[in-house]
Amino acid sequence: MIESLEELKAIRDGAPDGSEYVSICGNAYAKFENGVFLQCVNGEWSGVVTGNIYSRSLSDINRIIELEEYAMSLEKRLGVE
Q1: Can you list the alpha helix ranges (DSSP code H) found in 1-81?
Q2: pLDDT in tens for each of the 81 residues of the chain?
Q3: Domain with 15 in it
Q4: Are 24 and 17 in contact (CB under 8 A)?
Q5: How far is 79 from 76, CA to CA, in rounded Å?
Q6: How many domains in the chain?
């Protein structure tokens, strides 16, 4: 799945504090805490519900955003459209 820069920012900005992972569909967040895998549902952290697949790291998403913004700034400076 390839999201636009705006979509990636929405995933990042929607992440509750402490989130480390996001579900494939981008609507659920998870973290490890005290050796337990927790998910955030309606703003509350609780045990993971069976069936959610967390395979995307928020740190990876943040890095992609940084690189995309850097590439856009280079294009602007070089006059590339």
Answers
A1: 5-13, 58-78
A2: 688 999 999 999 999 999 999 988 777 899 988 888 888 877 888 886 556 666 789 999 999 999 999 999 999 999 886
A3: 5-78
A4: no
A5: 5
A6: 1
